[in-house]
Design goal:
Distance between the termini: 28 Å
Radius of gyration: 25 Å
Structural class: alpha/beta
Number of strands: 11
Shape: globular
Strand order of the largest sheet: 5-4-3-2-1-11
Helix content: 40-55%
Number of helices: 17
Order of helices and strands: HHHHHHHHHHEHHEHEEEHEEHEEEEHH
Strand content: 5-15%
């Protein structure tokens, strides 16, 4: 038996599998697919796992109601297998205050993946509903899964973490296609490319040239690489004149960051670390025009602590500003008890004056607020940050004015994972500043995935991105995704860098998800016409 015959036998075995064997195959294929994400970036594995998805949907046709429920169940198991190993690190957050939250860890580690797998199931179900009897079923799967992934990124505030399109972000040349079609366009291409080997088993009984689909997919992959290589060559890293960054990465443990009694310890560490010499010619913070501290940097309301503001003013030389995260108290009458707060970014001048403020818009469910907050609090539940009533969401996204530097677009923590939400067409910034605290997730794959997703926002928008993380990974990234400087995970230190210059707005920055939507609509129309032209099997 030659290789082609072995592959055909494997495909037919998967098509004919049923019951627990079918579920186990889907679960294993999904789990293997998680290796395509950071930090592994082993995306060729998807050439194995996505054909399995095609064959599972092929086999679902033997079920009731045209196989749609059977396909949905296969999609659910595939999604569950993908999300559990991909998001296991979420469980670490429930161990920060283990006495309160440890009992919830299994619900997070299994419950969230099970919820997200429903969207994968919907993609498989839609694919089976429009499933044609030829190689175009690969296009049906790509369009349907992309629709499911888009819904995952928007329903109930959305969580587009580890969308399949991120598999095409390494090597960097492949990621440049995002400047044209964004994450959702990349997701469509990823599924279509990686699922294409499935049709090799069709042979003469279904396709005269079964090799044509994978050959076309490989050609498309090569074309993407060539486009990306040319784009990288056309946009060498350029720097903004007279802007010097210093990013402070304190590597503080979570139980310190949220402990008011640690105020003096936290301030001392921030101040001394920020002024640390980074080399024999460094003079500390005096070398920087912009000092950047991470998200929610203090276990107190910064602007209500006069001594802390005075210490910051003493640290900053004239001409240097601080961009820092901090919780911010709402504007209330004097004497009013404060029970809720904003998760904010401040721009602070050398004299201690606040120049600009941004309040986080996209809050984290169960981390910064609870769905049905009042009702769940009456049941005794609290979110991980333990802010009674939950954080208050900001009202609008806008750029921050930074003295002697281009205006910055602020993104706090996981706001950077949402494509298309990062820039207003009439208020284009010169760079993105992403303050985050991945310390919740320990030394795990989570921070690497977060960095991967934030970097794609830079490529999509043609904007440099500066990332300050409590425990890492802090980085300076140019507008085509090159990492100019980086401070690794779990390291205490400072990172000095120049600020890369922005490039002209990309097609994605100007058109948003419209090109991807046109691609998917055209794909659906093509598949439906093909299905109508052939007898459904």
């Amino acid at each position: 038996m030659n290789a082609a015959e072995k592959l055909r036998a494997l495909g037919l075995a998967i098509i004919l599998a049923w019951g627990w064997k079918r579920a186990a195959i889907a679960l294993f294929a999904g789990a293997l697919s998680a290796l395509a994400m950071a930090p592994f970036n082993a995306w060729p594995v998807l050439f194995v796992t996505f054909p399995v998805a095609v064959w599972l949907i092929d086999g679902a046709g033997a079920g009731r109601w045209r196989g749609v429920p059977a396909a949905a169940m296969s999609g659910f198991w595939f999604g569950l297998g993908y999300f559990v190993p991909g998001l296991y690190w979420i469980g670490y957050a429930f161990l920060v205050d283990a006495s309160t939250f440890a009992w919830l860890m299994p619900f997070a580690v299994l419950g969230l993946p099970a919820y997200l797998a429903l969207f994968t199931a919907s993609g498989f179900a839609l694919a089976r509903l429009i499933w044609p009897a030829d190689a175009s079923r690969v296009i049906a799967l790509a369009a349907s899964i992309t629709i499911g992934e888009w819904l995952r990124g928007h329903v109930l505030t959305g969580f587009p973490w580890n969308a399949f399109g991120y598999a095409l972000t390494e090597p960097l040349a492949l990621a440049q296609t995002a400047s044209l079609i964004g994450l959702w366009g990349l997701t469509f291409l990823a599924v279509a490319i990686f699922a294409s080997p499935a049709v090799v088993i069709d042979g003469a009984w279904r396709e005269r040239k079964p090799w044509l689909a994978p050959a076309t997919a490989l050609a498309l992959l090569v074309a993407m690489g060539m486009f990306g290589g040319i784009r990288l060559k056309l946009h060498p890293t350029a720097m903004v004149a007279d802007v010097k960054l210093r990013i402070m990465q304190p590597n503080l443990q979570q139980d310190v960051k949220f402990n008011y009694s640690a105020k003096a310890e936290v301030m001392h560490k921030y101040l001394t670390l920020s002024d640390r010499a980074a080399g024999p010619e460094s003079t500390g913070v005096r070398d920087a025009s912009i000092l950047i501290w991470p998200e929610s940097a203090f276990p107190f309301f910064l602007t209500r602590e006069a001594d802390a503001m005075a210490q910051i003013a003493d640290l900053l030389p004239k001409g240097t500003v601080l961009i820092t995260g901090s919780v911010r108290a709402p504007d209330l009458p004097p004497g009013t008890r404060i029970t809720r707060a904003y998760n904010s970014i401040y721009v602070i001048d050398h004299d201690g004056s606040v120049l600009s403020v941004y309040d986080k818009l996209h809050l984290v469910p169960f981390g910064e607020f609870l769905p049905f907050q009042d009702w769940m609090e009456r049941l005794g539940l609290v979110q991980l940050t333990r802010v009674q009533g939950g954080f208050i969401a900001g009202t609008r996204r806008r750029t921050l004015a930074v003295p002697n530097a281009p205006p910055a677009l602020p993104l706090i923590c996981y706001e950077a994972i949402f494509p298309g939400d990062v820039a207003a067409s009439d208020d284009r910034p010169g760079w993105i500043v992403n303050l985050t605290n991945d310390g919740w997730f320990g030394i795990s794959t989570g921070p690497y995935q977060h960095l991967q997703q934030a970097r794609l926002r830079a490529i999509e928008e043609g904007l440099p991105l500066v990332r300050a993380a409590n425990t890492g990974i802090s980085a300076v990234i140019d507008p085509v995704g090159r990492v100019v400087a980086q401070l690794g995970l779990g390291i205490e230190g400072v990172l000095d860098s120049r600020l890369p210059s922005a490039i002209a707005p990309t097609i994605y920055a100007r058109a948003g998800d419209v090109p991807a939507a046109i691609m998917i609509a055209a794909a659906l129309l093509f598949v439906i016409r093909r299905r109508a032209a052939k007898r459904t099997w």
